[in-house]
Design a protein that fits this description.
- With 476 residues, the chain is of the alpha/beta class.
- The chain has 17 helices and 17 strands.
């Protein structure tokens, strides 16, 4: 009897030792497709990306990247793994939006005006409504669904002056386990009374939100003065104090978007040497400081941004829509300033990264018309554009060890792109011969229809139909 029991125990142990590795590997998933991700900036590297025509990305149960490479090599190392076959598709890291205003989702495509007039005519009245938490949650739901629909998996987001706007956004993002950075707007002058806070209340409200949300799941917080003209020196001092007290949070604001704005800043801060100097003087420029636009920066300001580790969010559709000017990407490269691509919805006209890259290309081309030597202006290559929308943006947000590439251990946020999503794309793709050709065609002709699937931490997201005025979504 004892021998029989011992024999059974040995048999059980042997079975478990054999099946355990196979069982463990069945818990991971392999995604087979043409796989592309960036490992370096195309401006400084001859080999900025890894591309596998027939590749495999392995994602573990923790939602992180376990392996990436040629299909035969990877699958030999994972003989029991479940394979999701996306052959004929392109699999890339999810797009990253370096600057966007979620409260402005409902006012995208509002006609006319330049920056300052546009704020007063459209933006401020719209943002008043976000003191209502229920209203804010409805817009947040639509906003998050639009990100997912367009393959964007990480974003740096403006709320409004109301803490309710931030709570609503982070709560909605948590339903998808999505990595977002956001903050309450700090604004104590030069705006309607119904949107103003005070230096003290902006500090208190922001501190409470930091303690509630920063590093809560995948949420991160950004101290968010709207821009220098709408904050008094006392409030900017409070913003700097928050950065001192919470050194790993972000700072997110606007810089040198419009020439009228720059003149206004100089009149409000007459002792400053320029727009960026205002922020510098309050200790706001540092690693994890992200300045939207930077269209009209001087050389010394580019140099200062590089020295402080600050980043620029390049927002071409917004800059074109408001007639703000043409961002000098080459100058940023020359000084080594970190740059990420941003949509800047709602002055920006699309949530879609392809369309944003499309406008970025046209903007660099248009700059040729405004320089003495057009040959010195280089066109924006497709690989650089996609870098700015993935790893470049991750570096701008100091998140390159979490998202933006398929580095082992990174969070598995990725997008499945169908290069033949429309008849025109399919027809045009017949004439492409390289992955760079395909990327450029998608950049020019692609839109949300080319986003077949979006994955957040290894989970496929879906957005289905409409309901109660907002999109309804499910996981699977």
């Amino acid at each position: 009897m004892k021998l029989s029991t011992c024999y059974k125990a040995l048999i059980t142990a042997a079975v478990l030792s054999f099946t355990a590795p196979a069982f463990a590997q069945y818990q991971t998933t392999a995604y087979r497709a043409s796989i592309l991700h960036f490992v370096a900036d195309p401006a400084v590297s001859q080999t900025p990306y890894e591309y596998y025509e027939d590749g495999v990305l392995v994602v573990g149960t923790d939602g992180k990247v376990k392996a990436v490479g040629p299909a035969n090599t990877v699958l030999n190392n994972y003989p029991y793994i479940q394979v999701v076959d996306y052959s004929g598709k392109i699999l890339m890291p999810g797009f990253i939006d370096s600057h966007v205003h979620y409260p402005q989702t409902e006012m995208i495509a509002s006609f006319g005006e330049q920056l300052l007039e546009w704020l007063n005519t459209y933006t401020f009245p719209t943002e008043q409504q976000f003191s209502n938490k229920t209203y804010a949650k409805g817009v947040a739901k639509t906003f998050i669904n639009e990100l997912v629909r367009n393959g964007t998996t990480t974003a740096l987001v403006f709320g409004t002056v109301s803490p309710n706007s931030v709570d609503a956004l982070f709560e909605e993002a948590q339903t998808r386990n999505m990595r977002l950075i956001a903050g309450k707007v700090m604004m104590d002058r030069n705006a309607p009374d119904y949107l103003l806070d005070t230096p003290a209340s902006s500090y208190t409200d922001s501190k409470a939100l930091i303690q509630k949300w920063h590093k809560n799941g995948r949420a991160l917080y950004a101290v968010t003065p709207r821009f220098a003209p709408t904050s008094t020196p006392e409030q900017l001092t409070k913003a700097g104090q928050l950065l001192q007290e919470f050194p790993d949070v972000y700072m997110h604001t606007h810089l040198s978007e419009n020439k009228g704005e720059i003149a206004w800043v100089q009149s409000l801060f007459p002792s400053s040497t320029g727009y960026l100097d205002v922020y510098n003087s309050f200790g706001l420029s540092r690693n994890r400081s992200v300045y939207a636009h930077g269209v009209h920066l001087r050389d010394d300001e580019f140099q200062s941004l590089a020295q402080t580790g600050s980043a620029i969010a390049f927002c071409p559709t917004s800059n074109m829509f408001l007639g703000s000017g043409l961002f000098n990407l080459q100058k940023a490269e020359q000084y080594g300033v970190k740059v990420g691509l941003g949509t800047d919805v709602g002055a920006g006209t699309s949530f879609n990264a392809f369309q944003t890259m499309n406008e970025a290309y046209k903007m660099t081309q248009l700059r040729k018309a405004f320089v003495d030597d057009p040959d010195t202006v280089n066109p924006l290559k497709a690989v650089k554009a996609y870098y700015l929308a993935t790893l470049g943006a991750a570096r701008a947000l100091s998140l390159e060890n979490q998202v933006g590439s398929f580095k082992i251990g990174n969070e598995a946020d990725f997008v499945v792109i169908n290069p033949n999503a429309t008849d025109l794309l399919k027809f045009r793709m017949q004439k492409t011969t390289t992955i760079e050709d395909k990327l450029f065609v998608l950049q020019m002709l692609g839109d949300d229809r080319a986003i077949q699937n979006t994955y957040v931490m290894g989970k496929k997201q879906t957005v289905n139909g409409y309901g109660s005025g907002y999109y309804q979504y499910t996981y699977n």
